Task: inverse folding
């Protein structure tokens, strides 16, 4: 089953690749690896929400944002490769703009990890970082980047 079909069966939609908001490209293919730029939780051209997790944004909403950011990262990767050629998801890096005392960053980034497992099955198991930061571009609560092997 194709990656697109797996996502569709789970009720997820691969969006059009997000346009860069600066002087960079959505993804780069180098040496059999695809590196995506950081992707925000943008849907239909608009940020799903803004603010810090644990303050203005709930953990559940942030998890939904991580899911959308992962879908956007897959769409960015699809600019330089066929997602059906992916042999492994090597690494996911998730940044969470969060309140000082918020500790559930890994639970937020699980939203992105679940998308990858849905899309690729066992090939979607990956190494991961869930990093807390003070702020992200456009006030986004979450940003996700991927490294994929072809």
Result:
């Amino acid at each position: 089953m194709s990656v697109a079909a797996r996502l569709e069966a789970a009720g997820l939609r691969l969006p059009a690749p997000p346009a860069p908001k600066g002087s960079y490209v959505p993804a780069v293919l180098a040496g059999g690896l695809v590196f995506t730029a950081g992707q925000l939780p943008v849907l239909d051209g608009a940020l799903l929400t803004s603010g810090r997790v644990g303050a203005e944004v709930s953990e559940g909403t942030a998890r939904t944002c991580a899911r959308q950011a992962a879908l956007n990262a897959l769409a960015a990767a699809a600019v330089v490769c066929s997602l059906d050629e992916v042999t492994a998801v090597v690494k996911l890096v998730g940044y969470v703009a969060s309140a000082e005392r918020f500790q559930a960053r890994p639970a937020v980034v699980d939203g992105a990890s679940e998308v990858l497992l849905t899309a690729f099955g066992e090939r979607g198991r990956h190494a991961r970082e869930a990093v807390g930061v003070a702020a992200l571009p456009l006030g986004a609560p979450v940003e996700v980047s991927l490294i994929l092997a072809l």
User: Anything to note?
Assistant: The chain has three helices and seven strands. The longest strand covers residues 88-97. The helical segments are 3-9, 59-77, 105-120. The mean pLDDT is 97.
